[in-house]
Amino acid sequence: MIPGPAALRARGLTRVYDDGHRRVPAVDPTDLDIPEGKFVTIVGPSACGKSTLLNMFCGLDRPDGGTIETPVLGAGALLGRVGYMPQSDLLMPWRNVTENAAVGLECLGCGRAEARRRAGEHMRQFGLEGFEHAYPGQLSGGMRQRVAMLRTFLCGRRINLLDEPFGKLDAMTRTSMQAWLLDYWQENACTILFVTHDIDEALFLSDEVHLMSPRPGRIVLSLAVDLPRPRRYSEVVTSVAFNRMKATLLDQLGKVAA
Question: Of 71, 78, 180, 247, which one's alpha carbon is 20 to 30 angstroms from that of 20?
Fold first, then answer.
């Protein structure tokens, strides 16, 4: 593990779903520390429990066993104190860019006019300048994701959970969004817990990568990513160190999937 205070700490975390006919284990007992200020990624096969972990970490779902602590936030319910961006951008089609970006602040009690003013101040930073009054149907996939991220980050949370935010983007847009996200994270010094099924993306972005097994998911490998920053995608993915770590993750994934 990377040394330093933990932003999130899970011990013995489990989740079992009951569909009325059977109990389906989703997450086996899991221990996980997310260091404050770091970019940490969880990877694994589809339906292995990655999103379930994030839902428990942000307070949308309750674990059946184990504990979640947020040492940097102190005691208290998680819901509303941790930033969360789900897989879908969930933009409201009847709201324009500024209005969609302001939703999170409005839900936190900020007045509508003030929330929209604050959203407007960040349009250039998020690559949305000139599109303040555009509606979701008029935006590219990458721009929709920027609006969703602005909505998340405007809430000013020290811990932000991003669930496969680039999974539906084409390769070129995805690469540019990865670089943009790294720049934002480094400028704002927040903690990011990122979920993806793409090992290249995980290694390029992260300080640490955790690999989950197929369902019921559990952490089977934790890997510190000691690649220098700042990172350029074309340089990183062709490096010996990158490909050595990728081989380690793929080898372990093959073993647990066998």
Answer: 78
With CA atoms as reference, report the closest residue to 213 among 14, 31, 15, 43: 43
Bond into 214 cis (ω within 30): no
**Which residue's structure tokens are 């109990």?**
23
Take residue 43 and report the two structure tokens written for it.
Answer: 């990877």
Q: What is residue 144's predicted lDDT score, i.e. its pLDDT?
A: 92
Domain coordinates in residue numbering, the chain: 87-156
- φ/ψ of residue 245, rounded to 5: -65, -40
Strand bridging mode 39-43 / 208-212: parallel
DSSP 133: T
Using a cut of 0.70, tell me whether the model's pTM lies above it: yes
For residue 231, what are the β-bridge partners?
A: none
Angstrom CA distances, 158 to 57, 212, 215, stand at 13, 25, 30
Burial of 97: CB neighbours in 10 Å, binned 0-12, 13-18, 19+: buried
Average per-residue pLDDT for the chain: 91
Distance separating alpha carbons of residues 112 and 176, to the nearest angstrom: 32
| 1's tokens | 């593990």
pLDDT at 147: 94
